[in-house]
Recover the amino acids of this structure.
């Protein structure tokens, strides 16, 4: 399953730089640093058959928000959400999914669009210093704003997952710059974030996880060409653009 996910993420690489690009960056998340769960208590792990596959965000007592490309092919009985831990494979509490709601307009061509899903949990999250619901942003931060994203994903392009939760600071790009980086692939329900010159980004396994500004959830890790490459920023599902859908289905 993880292999499938990697392939689905790598598919998008063929549009941009060569898939055989020898250029690989080292680092964490990519270019990030370790954080404790109390610094990002909304961070959750999306698990398939007990194994971390994606990220997610706690948005209420009984809903986590993730990416549709993470959950679209998973049976609800095989999915659970782990919260309250900064370790990828241990600690915190694990909540079985009772319902998965993928955005009905989710599609992958020519790029993942409406890449958002809701995971309802069978037993409510117990909110604490390490488990907190994050409010949804209603407006996107201005271009240039610093935002934080986090996860247990690959620490280099093609690399392996991180055992400890990592966070990285990137900047929101203008929609014009985002479209210049990915012609014909950016919709109003997406935006880009990265740093000039590359070196800081989310990567495979971070998908579905949070992008945060001012204590609010503004984006969901969705796609990119490779990871942390110069001129190929990360692309995030826009929470403000999809907030009405979340409200309709989760009441949040
Ligand atoms: N699709 C990837 C996943 O499933 C996330 C890729 C994010 N890529 C990026 N360059 N920011 O984990």
């Amino acid at each position: 399953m993880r292999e499938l996910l990697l392939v689905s993420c790598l598919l998008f690489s063929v549009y941009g730089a060569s898939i055989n690009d020898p250029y690989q960056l080292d680092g964490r998340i990519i270019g990030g640093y370790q954080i404790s769960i109390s610094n990002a208590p909304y961070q959750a792990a999306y698990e398939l058959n007990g194994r971390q596959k994606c990220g997610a965000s706690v948005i209420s007592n009984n809903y986590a928000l993730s990416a549709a490309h993470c959950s679209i092919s998973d049976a609800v009985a095989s999915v659970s959400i782990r919260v309250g831990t900064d370790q990828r494979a241990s600690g915190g509490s694990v909540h079985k999914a009772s319902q998965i709601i993928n955005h009905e307009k989710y599609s992958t061509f020519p790029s993942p669009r409406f890449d958002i899903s809701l995971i309802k949990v069978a037993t409510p999250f117990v909110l604490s210093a390490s488990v907190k619901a994050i409010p949804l942003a209603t407006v996107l931060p201005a271009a240039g704003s610093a935002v934080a994203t986090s996860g247990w994903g690959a620490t280099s392009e093609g690399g392996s997952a991180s055992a400890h939760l990592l966070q990285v600071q990137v900047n929101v790009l203008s929609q014009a710059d985002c479209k210049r980086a990915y012609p014909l692939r950016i919709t109003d329900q997406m935006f880009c974030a990265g740093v000039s010159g590359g070196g800081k980004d989310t990567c495979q396994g971070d998908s579905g996880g949070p992008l945060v500004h001012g204590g609010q959830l503004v984006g969901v890790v969705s796609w990119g060409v490779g990871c942390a490459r110069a001129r190929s920023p990360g692309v995030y599902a826009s929470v403000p653009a999809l907030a009405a859908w979340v409200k309709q289905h989760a009441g949040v």
